[in-house]
Every structure is written in C-alpha cells, then in structure tokens.
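Hey there, shall we discuss this one?
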Amino acid sequence: MDTLSYKTVSVKAEDAQKEWVVIDATDQILGRLCSKVAKIVRGKYKACYTPHVDCGDNVIIINADKVALTGNKWNNRIYYSYTGYPGGQREATPAILKMKAETYKLKAGINPLFIKVLKGMLPKNRLGAQLLKNVHVYNGPEHPHQAQNPKVIDINKLK
C-alpha cells in the first residue's frame, strides 16, 4: 500500500462552510449547554475540523434568561475579574451577571454570563477571541438574524 497517496487535508478559513444555527436555552443546564455550544463554534462536530482555523458555525442562543443552574450555584459560585489596578479585584455571582444582562443596556447579542462561561471553554489566544464573536445570545425568543436563514437544532441530540 502506498502511504504517500494519503494527504492530511487542512481547511483554510475561506474554504470553511460556516452555517448559522439557533439553540433554545430554555431549561438547559448552563455548563452543559455551553460545552456543546463551544464544540459547535469550534467546528468539532464537522468532518473538516482544523484546530488552528475558524471553521465552526455561528450560534444564536435564544431564551438565555431561562437557563438553569443546579444546586445553589446562582448565589454560591463566584467569578473573579481583575482591572489591573491595586484593589481592582471584582467578584460577581451568576445571579448578578444575569441581572446585568436583563437590566443594563448592553450591545445586542451580548450576555455577560454566557460570555464568561464560553470564554473559559475556548482557546486562550486570538482564535478564541475570534470564535467568541460567532456567538450571539438573546434573552427572548426573537433575534435579528433571520436573513442568515439559521437552522434550529436540538442541543440534547448532540454528544
């Protein structure tokens, strides 16, 4: 058998076939949902997965305000951030981040809770920052991305 006939195919960014998908977050557990969304955004469910290229899909998460956490994690879990200045350590619970998403006038498609969780599941480099821009999170059932003809997928069917 001629082993030189087998070539490893790496997908280039312009050759990647990106799609738009809609995921309903109603009564889903936050961490389990975000781990599957991170795989979709990264492109790991596709046969043409390439680790160093953005070949994943664009994800629209609707009904983000109806996501669930098990136990008393809404108040007991603490997310830390640091401003870079002395005394600049900040802490927030998931309940505070959810409240910020509902009350503050944030940019459309941005939800601090989902961004915080998803950012930890993506690569810690420029590719991860680029992949995070492919996620759009909305509190209600409507989203402004109808022109992209997104397909609705059931997140419970994915492994």
User: Anything to note?
Assistant: The mean pLDDT is 91. The chain has five helices and six strands. The CA atoms of residues 95 and 106 lie 17 Å apart. Residues 30-42 form the longest helix (13 residues).
